[in-house]
Amino acid sequence: MLSIKNLQVKLEDEDKQILKGVDLEVEAGTVHAIMGPNGSGKSTLSYVLSGKDGYEVTGGSAMLEGVDLLDMEPEERAASGLFLAFQYPVEIPGVGNMTFLRTAVNAQRKARGEDEMSAAEFLKVVREKAKDLKIDAEMLKRPVNVGFSGGEKKRNEILQMAMLEPKMCILDETDSGLDVDAMKLVADGVNALRSEGRGFLVITHYQRLLDHIKPDVVHIMANGRIIKSGGPELALEVENNGYADILAEVV
Ligand SMILES: Nc1ncnc2c1ncn2[C@@H]1O[C@H](COP(=O)(O)OP(=O)(O)OP(=O)(O)O)[C@@H](O)[C@H]1O
């Protein structure tokens, strides 16, 4: 589904190489987790895939279902089924959460040549999904993320994901800032979306999220590369021993 080959990325304005040849294949129906020391390039990978400005791809490729992602505008990538839940969700003053969600859902439907969701249908679906994430009616009316707590922002990202039903979901440290109960809610929201046709890339520092969202594959990223891949036991190894042994293996 998501096929990344030898992806190399530098900062646009500086001579600083951040990704130094990332190889990653996320098959439909699977959950891949990426862990790694601070500053290893995990967020940069998610930003580059989603089309954030400020980065220059200097080599390699990233394809979603055989289509070149790197050639597309960010909104085209989203319409083709890519979704990124941000590590730091942005506040959008003046834009109601509900309006934002409905506009996003319908813009993507339009881009795919589908009919827009009616107001009544949208309301029904958004209320159901918001309830599952314990997002109340008042939060749906407020401007997007404005004044939301850290955990509320993260749950709101999952609500967006649930509404957009993307094919490839990238979650960048969605667990940071969540209390124990909210982490369970978020994990339930992700697990409810797991399906044969959908892939997940979950960036996290902690094994505890992976207790709830069971990954098929765990990758360790360091210094702009994926240096080791394995099963869920790799996350446990990191939790117990840190990164020193794994880093030493590849030097
Ligand atoms: N716009 C930028 N300007 C300067 N340095 C940058 C910029 N974007 C990324 N970097 C650098 O690139 C490296 C990788 O950053 P990135 O945020 O991708 O790491 P990360 O693995 O997600 O880290 P963390 O686990 O701390 O979130 C870091 O050294 C960071 O300082």
Topology of helices and strands:
Elements: E1 2-11, E2 17-26, E3 31-35, H1 42-50, E4 55-64, E5 67-68, H2 74-79, E6 82-85, E7 92-96, H3 97-111, H4 119-132, H5 137-141, E8 143-144, H6 150-164, E9 168-172, H7 180-193, E10 199-203, H8 207-212, E11 217-222, E12 225-230, H9 233-241, H10 244-250
Parallel strand pairs: 3-10, 3-11, 6-9, 9-10
Antiparallel strand pairs: 1-2, 1-4, 4-5, 7-8, 11-12
Helix pairs in contact: 4-6, 6-7
The protein binds adenosine-5'-triphosphate (ATP).
Domain ABC transporter: 2-248
Pfam families: ABC_tran
Keywords: ATP-binding, Nucleotide-binding
Average pLDDT for all residues: 94
Strand content: 25-35%
Named CATH architecture: 3-Layer(aba) Sandwich
- Give the N-to-C terminal Cα separation: 31 Å
N to C succession of SSEs: EEEHEEHEEHHHEHEHEHEEHH
CATH class: Alpha Beta
**Which consecutive residue ranges, at least 5 long each, have pLDDT under 50?**
none
Q: Ligands in the structure? A: adenosine-5'-triphosphate
CATH superfamily: P-loop containing nucleotide triphosphate hydrolases
Strand order of the largest sheet: 6-9-10-3-11-12
Radius of gyration: 18 Å
Identify the quaternary structure here.
Answer: single chain
Tell me the structural class: alpha/beta
* Total count of strands: 12
Domain ABC transporter: 2-248
Organism: Sulfitobacter guttiformis
InterPro entries: ABC_transporter-like_ATP-bd (IPR003439), ABC_transporter-like_CS (IPR017871), FeS-cluster_ATPase_SufC (IPR010230), P-loop_NTPase (IPR027417)
Family: Belongs to the ABC transporter superfamily. Ycf16 family.
